[in-house]
Specification:
PTS_EIIB_2/3, PTS_EIIB-like_sf, PTS galactitol transporter subunit IIB, 4 helices, protein-N(PI)-phosphohistidine-sugar phosphotransferase activity, four-stranded parallel β-sheet
Length: 93
């Protein structure tokens, strides 16, 4: 069964698109079955319960029990490998 990753940024236009595509590509290259969905940070509270993990470039709240990784590594290129390992550790449970 595919794990669902919710990727959020301020407006769900450019930033979350870049981050979502990189995460999806990197995880699928590692053989992981994932579904990546983008959303605005303001939409996270209504979508969090249906996600296995939230990756965000901006602070989010009301995520319930869904783990959150806040990072800009997928935009800067610094720390991507470490963040991919964090993501894998959360969805590989």
């Amino acid at each position: 069964m595919a794990k669902k990753i919710l990727v959020s940024c301020g407006t769900a236009v450019a930033t979350s698109t870049v981050v979502a595509k990189k995460i999806e590509e990197m995880l699928k290259n590692k053989g992981l079955n994932v579904v990546v969905e983008q959303c605005k940070a303001s939409e996270v509270p209504s979508k969090a319960a249906r996600a296995d993990l939230i990756v965000t470039t901006t602070p989010v709240s009301d995520t319930g029990d869904t783990p959150v990784i806040q990072t800009i590594s997928f935009l800067t290129g610094v720390g991507i490998d470490a963040d991919i390992e964090k993501i894998i550790s959360h969805i590989d449970k």
